Known about the structure:
The protein is α+β, with helices and mostly antiparallel strands. It has helices spanning 51-65, 81-91, 101-107, 114-122, 149-163, and strands at 3-10, 13-20, 23-29, 99-100, 135-136. The protein has 5 helices and 5 strands, in the order E-E-E-H-H-E-H-H-E-H. The radius of gyration is 16 Å and the shape is globular. 23% of the residues are buried.
Amino acid sequence: MSIQISFFHSPIGMMELKANGKYIHSLQFKSTLKNPGTAFNIESKQQNNHPVIVECERQLTEYFDGDRTSFDFPFQQEGTLFQKKVWTELIHIPFGRTISYMELSKRIKNIKAIRAIGTANGSNAISIVVPCHRVVGSNGDLTGYNGDLWRKKWLLDHEGRLANGVQTLF
């Protein structure tokens, strides 16, 4: 089965979407401080019209426009049973809310697994949709995010404003 790729222009940077069959299996920021990416003209790349990619892009647009708080397009990522358990729990963090790594470890009933949870968060290949950005340090500090901390702050601010009913202009 071939991998379908598309690029999505978000307010916080270019995202690369990958689908394999009927599922999105990767949704990542194309350029981060850890991975600056390669320079190429994204405008010259043709957008993909694969149905699951089109639906993912539609829902991401709604999210960034403030009209969507959850996602229902089909997605799936490969990982260990532990990683999948963490990623599943991430999906249950309400829009506009955060929890600590300690709280997440309690939710998966393994309070000694805080570091492993951080590693699982870092391995999440489906940014925003599997909301690892909603996990913060015990003291509320922003810690770790593959898409860079400035994006994590932007996403949390965006969701917080919308969850509190504050109209935003982007």
